[in-house]
């Protein structure tokens, strides 16, 4: 038998959890707005943020008015069982949807891990509709308004467990298990430094806390546990419901907060461990120049003609050049901010793509938008990182491949930005592709 429950102690604990959940979500939205990295997961998390504020007020209203002790005779809509259940479900399931979308945004379009994460988000939405629909359908009493539903009158299954409660608990456990295991599966397809990989896995592994909260919720609501007094039983049921929702909200913000604190720690550590220099030398150490891109010879061609197309109204600048004349020195590129690719059509020319339009949006693994900026990587870029950047660059630039048999080398100096910006600029490049002279 459980001891007598202290309403004051539980109210303080629940209040702290709600405040942490609301503050962390607000910080996440402000950070993403400031960085201009808002995506679908950020828009979705606005829903649980708004409803959790309502849920927090409902908690204190129920405690002060003692409405949580009665269902059948409760005439207040705001503190009714059904309204609280719907608000609880919205906060809980939309937090899970936001977490699944946070995992999806790491990967580029068309990636199998991205599609898998989006399927998890859709699955969570289906579970949300199923649990709410079953509760309304199986607990509705004739002649009573929906907000005066008594949960004890719900249709019961084996061993007297309500069918809607059993389905809800199973859906909670299944969703949290998938969200816990999904990062282990999808991050196997991404090459990351071991330190960053551990950080991301640790952040997403916070779903195990929601899983534990779901198990505790099922035990206290639907298992035969001796609570001591009826009032203590109702208090514990109310408390575990609020714990589950607040933990789900905190977990969905955990990735961004973890990466934000990690960047601050890295910057402080790099400043403390840096040797003493003059102000000019210290600035050079803190802001090292990127390694220069070597001058690359263009493929040989019998034609010495140069055809150039510029669009002055757009940031995109694509030039098709033969080998007879270059931008200054024959057979070489003077501008180190350009990348040379061989078109997949197999013609003899080469494609010069300006850094401002194509190279700037390239990221190494699309992880900036998940809260981690790649300025934490030590400069200059290591050879494996440069190789990964080059591989991604060749995937993003339409119609470009490398052909070693033709003696064409490709190198790239990558600026790292967020994926959302990359997609917008890359799509604008694709839309204007038809205007480029081939």
TrEMBL record:
<feature type="transmembrane region" description="Helical">
    <location>
        <begin position="165"/>
        <end position="187"/>
    </location>
</feature>
<feature type="compositionally biased region" description="Low complexity">
    <location>
        <begin position="298"/>
        <end position="310"/>
    </location>
</feature>
<keyword id="KW-1133">Transmembrane helix</keyword>
<feature type="domain" description="Rhodopsin">
    <location>
        <begin position="28"/>
        <end position="258"/>
    </location>
</feature>
<feature type="region of interest" description="Disordered">
    <location>
        <begin position="293"/>
        <end position="337"/>
    </location>
</feature>
<dbReference type="GO" id="GO:0016020">
    <property type="term" value="C:membrane"/>
</dbReference>
<dbReference type="InterPro" id="IPR049326">
    <property type="entry name" value="Rhodopsin_dom_fungi"/>
</dbReference>
<feature type="transmembrane region" description="Helical">
    <location>
        <begin position="43"/>
        <end position="63"/>
    </location>
</feature>
<feature type="transmembrane region" description="Helical">
    <location>
        <begin position="116"/>
        <end position="138"/>
    </location>
</feature>
<keyword id="KW-0472">Membrane</keyword>
<protein>
    <recommendedName>
        <fullName>Rhodopsin domain-containing protein</fullName>
    </recommendedName>
</protein>
<keyword id="KW-0812">Transmembrane</keyword>
<feature type="transmembrane region" description="Helical">
    <location>
        <begin position="12"/>
        <end position="31"/>
    </location>
</feature>
<comment type="similarity">
    <text>Belongs to the SAT4 family.</text>
</comment>
<feature type="transmembrane region" description="Helical">
    <location>
        <begin position="199"/>
        <end position="222"/>
    </location>
</feature>
<feature type="transmembrane region" description="Helical">
    <location>
        <begin position="75"/>
        <end position="95"/>
    </location>
</feature>
<feature type="transmembrane region" description="Helical">
    <location>
        <begin position="234"/>
        <end position="262"/>
    </location>
</feature>
<dbReference type="Pfam" id="PF20684">
    <property type="entry name" value="Fung_rhodopsin"/>
</dbReference>
<dbReference type="InterPro" id="IPR052337">
    <property type="entry name" value="SAT4-like"/>
</dbReference>
